[in-house]
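W.,

You were right to be curious about this one. When I first looked at the sequence I had no strong expectations either way, so I just let the prediction run and decided to look at it fresh. Below is the sequence, 178 residues in total, followed by the output.
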Amino acid sequence: MKKVIASITVCLFVFWTARIVSLNRNPPITIYYNIGDTLDCGDLEVYFVESHLDDPDKFKNRFGVDSDNSCGEHKVLSICIAVTNRSTEDADMSDIRDFLDCGFESSSWSSAINPEVTKQINEANGESIAPGSTQKIWFVTEVNKMCFKDSTWKIIEESPFTYVLTLSPQKIAVRLDV
């Protein structure tokens, strides 16, 4: 009886270990796009227009909106995405934002969009995109100095940032050109 229990225990251990190894060897694949690329989403065409990593003053000059400076020294990371409605019906902006607004990341940092500042920049946008129309949408977040070592912060403009559109079922990210 002891041999049977020992055999079952060894088998369970081997299968569990194999499962963990299998999951770790096959991480989800990320599809990368670059600024200037277009993503075909059926009735919508998504074009990645431009991206910036600005000091707060430059950001205010560019958009006429203050960034959230309550977090201390920071920079503002932004991306502009142009969405074209190729369907015969209006496309709801809230559905489009749900698809597009996942967040920003680098190799050691990630952040969701700042909904308050993003809303202020896109205030003139309507609630829908008419058939055949294109609408530019900006997404913004703050990159706080406290999240980085001093040596990294000095060369933050050289860091490879990405904007993640969606994680499921396939992670889609855009390499930012800052």
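Here's what jumped out at me. The helical segments are 2-25, 56-63, 93-100, 115-121, 150-154. And, maybe more interesting for your project: The mean pLDDT is 87.

Coffee later to discuss?

I.
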